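Deliverable D5.2: sample structural annotation.
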Amino acid sequence: MLIEPDVQAMLHNKNLNLRNKFYLITLLRKRSCNIVDGSPPLVDRECLNPVSQALFEISAGKVRIAEKGTEPVAEVLAADDAQAAALAAALGGQGFEGL
């Protein structure tokens, strides 16, 4: 079975800086959720599946996880992350006692 792009080659590519398959899966999930939420594609590729689109974007080096202590990276929050941040801001210092 031919899979494009080759995930094993991506994991061994030092330029992509993918530490392991779990790191890749986390990155793939976050980016595919962003695509589903309406984020524009970063690679010109006709894919019906958002997971496939995200995989091509990762293999092209267009997407990576922002790490603390590195240069700033434009980060797009998923809708559930934005809702959680809004809820935390609304609660302030109360925590979950008021729920």
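Annotation notes: Residues 72-77, 95-99 have pLDDT under 50 and may be disordered. The radius of gyration is 16 Å.
The annotation will be released with the project's public dataset once the embargo ends.
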